[in-house]
Amino acid sequence: MMWRGPLLLRLAWRNVRRQARRSALTAAAMVVGLALLVMSRSIADGAHDEWIAAGVRLGSGHLAVQAPDFRTRHAIEQHLSADDRAAVEAVLADSAVAPHLAAVAPRLEITALASAPAAAVPVAVIGVDPAREPAFSEMDQRVVEGRYLEPGDHLQAFVGVELATRLRLRLGDRLVLTASGPDGTISDQLVRVVGTFRTAIPEVDQGLIHIPLPTAQAWLGVDGVTTIAVLLDRSWDTDRWVARLRHALASRADRVVVLSWRAASPELDAAVRMDDYGDYVFHGILFVIIALAIVNTVLMSVLYRTREFGVIRALGLRRRDTAMLVMIEGLILTGISGLVGLLLGLAVTWGFFHDGLDLTALMGDQMTAAGAVIDPVFVPQFRVIQLVQSAVSVIIIGIVASLYPAWRATRIDMAEAMKFEA
Amino acid sequence: MSDSPAAAVRTDAVWKIFEHDGIAVEAVRGVTMSVAPGEFVVLAGPSGSGKTTLLNLFGGLTRPTRGRVWIAEQEISDISERRLAQIRLERLGFVFQAYNLLPVLTARENAEFSLLLRGTPEAERRQRVTALFERIGIAGLEDRRPGKLSGGQQQRVAVARAVVGEPALVLADEPTANLDSASSDALLEVMVQLNQELGTTFVFATHDTRLMERAKRLIHLVDGAVASDTRR
C-alpha cells in the first residue's frame, strides 16, 4: 500500500497556514495554557520539594532506617543494635552513596514524662548527635533563647518554647525525664535547659526535647538507636535510594528496614498527595480547555472545507488517509503551539520567579502544612521528566482533540459535499 | 442495453432513492445503459432529471439503492469503501462544475494529485503534467495557485487532473456552467481533442447546448429515467 505521509504532511501544513488567523488564535490559547501549565507545575514542584524537605527535616528524613516494628509500635525495645547501626552507617558512608546524602542523623526516640516543679507533661525526647543533627533538622536555626546542643554536652536539653513556658522553665533550670527502658525498668534522667526553640508547629513546640544521644543511651541502657534518619540531596530520588539501601542491607532485613518518608510520615504523604490531586484537577481543566480549542479549530476547518474533503475522497483518497490528514493538522497545531508554550512557560517562570515566588505578604514569614513549616518563598523546579510529561500531554491532547474532527471528515458524503458552499 | 464486456461504465436497472423528511424521492429509476471506451457522451435533461445523481453513481460517489454498476467491468455497487477509493483513483477522473481545485496546491500539484496518490515517480509526474498543460493551453501556469487563475484556466487544470492518470472514464458535471462562452468553447475544444487524440472516454451531465451539439451520443433523462439515447 502506497505511503502517503509526505503528501498528507504537505497538505496539512499548508492547510494550517492557510487558516492563519484561526490557527494563530487557537495556538495563542494553547501557548498561554501550556505556559501556565509549565509555570504552575514548576512552582508547585518547587513548593512540594520545599514542603517535603521541611517535613522530612522535622520528621525522620527522606529515608528512615529502623527496626522492623518501630514505626508502628514506637517502643524503645524496637531499636537498632550498635552492630546494625554500624552496618547501616558503613553503607551510608560508601563513596557511591555519601555524595547523594545531604545529612545523616542517628536518633534515639523516647516517649517520656517531663517533670518540673510547676508541672509534669508527656513529651517526646530525642537523643541526637549534636555534631550531625543541625545539618539535618536545622534546629540550631530555631533557637529562641540560649543555644542548641553542642558536642561534649552531657546533661543539656533543648526544649520547645511552649513546653518551657508550660513547665515554667528558664535557661539553666532543671527538669527530670522519666521513661521505661527496653526491659521495662523505669528510669529518671536529670537534664538542664540549655536553649529553647520555636518551629511554629504547636505539637512540636509543646512537646519535644532534644538531649545528647550518649546521655539518652546511658539513661535507658540502650547501645543503639531507634532511627537513622537520612536526608537526600533530591527528594524525588527517594524511591530509588530506598531500593538501593534495602538491597545493600538485605542480609539484615529481619532486623533493619528502610522506609521512605511516605511510609515514615504518612500524614505528610497524604497532604502532598492531596495537593498533587488538586494540581491534577487544575491541569486536567487546563487540558480540557486546550483540547476544546483544538477541537473547535480543527472541526471548523473540516466543516469549512467539506467540499474539499469531498473532492479529495472522490479523487481516491481513502478514509484512513483523510482521517490522517486531519490528525496531522491537529498535531501540527498542537505541536507548534505546544513547543512555543513550553518554551514561553520556562522563560516566564525563569524570568519572573527564578528567585522564587514570594508569598510572604499572603502567608507571613512562615506557613505550616501537614506538620511542616514551609518557607513561603517557592523556588520553581524544572525537571526533564516534567517537560517530557508536558510534551507527551500536548501530543495526546493533539491526537484526542483531532479524533472527532477526523472522524467527521471521513463521514462526509462526497456527492453532498459537491453542493457545499463555504 | 449494451452488454459489451469492454464498457467503460455500465449499469443494470440501477435506482437511487433519497429520503427527505420521510418522503422517498426517486432520483434515478431503473436505468440500464452502457458507455463504450472512447465515447463522448452527454447526459441531458431538465434540473432534477437525475443527471448528476447518475453521474455520481457512475463515479462511485454514491451507492445505488437497487441495481448494479460496473466500471471497466469491475462491479462497484457493493464493494468496500477502500476498494471503491482505489477504483476511483485508478480508473476514474472527475471534472466538477465549481472546478474544485485544492487552494493550497499549485496548478501542477492539483493536476498531479492522483499521480501523487498512486505513488508515481516525480520525473514521470512532471513529464506528464508538463505535456498535458502544453496540450490544453495552460503551459507556464504550473506554479500558480488556483486563486491566481481565471475560471477557464482553473477548469483546464481540473480537466488535466481528471485525465492525467489516463483513466477509463472521465465524469464531468456541468463543466462549463461557471464559464463565459469563450472559455466554455475553449474548454470544450480541449476535451474533444483529448477524446479524439487520446481516446479518453467522457460522460457529461450538462444543460449546455454547445456541449450537447458536440456529443457523439446524447442521452436525455426525464424524471430519473432514460427518455432517449441518440448516437451521432
Task: Write up what this structure looks like.
Chain A is of the alpha+beta class. Chain A has 2 domains: 5-55 and 270-417, no CATH class; 60-264, no CATH class. In chain A, 53% of the residues lie in helices and 19% in strands. Chain A has helices at residues 5-18, 20-58, 70-73, 82-92, 133-137, 161-166, 202-205, 213-220, 238-248, 261-264, 266-304, 306-314, 319-353, 360-363, 384-410, 414-417; strands at 63-66, 101-115, 120-128, 143-146, 156-160, 174-180, 186-197, 208-212, 227-232, 257-260, 357-358, 367-369, 372-374, 377-378. In chain A, strand 6 (174-180) and strand 7 form a beta hairpin. In chain A, helix 2 (20-58) runs antiparallel to helix 11, helix 2 (20-58) packs antiparallel against helix 15 (384-410) and helix 13 (319-353) runs antiparallel to helix 15. The longest helix of chain A has 39 residues, at 20-58. Chain A is elongated and about 100 Å long. In chain B, helix 6 (151-163) runs parallel beside helix 7. Chain B has helices at 51-58, 81-91, 107-111, 113-118, 122-135, 151-163, 181-198, 209-214; strands at residues 9-20, 23-35, 40-44, 66-71, 74-75, 92-95, 169-173, 202-205, 217-222, 225-231. Chain B has one domain: P-loop containing nucleotide triphosphate hydrolases (Rossmann fold), CATH 3.40.50. The two termini of chain B are 17 Å apart. The longest helix of chain B is centred in the C-terminal third of the chain and has 18 residues, at 181-198. Chain B is globular. At the A-B interface, helix 1 and helix 12 of A face helix 1, helix 2 and helix 4 of B.
Summarize the structure.
The complex is a heterodimer of chains A (422) and B (232). Chain A is α+β, with helices and mostly antiparallel strands and 422 residues long. Helix content of chain A is 53%, strand content 19%.
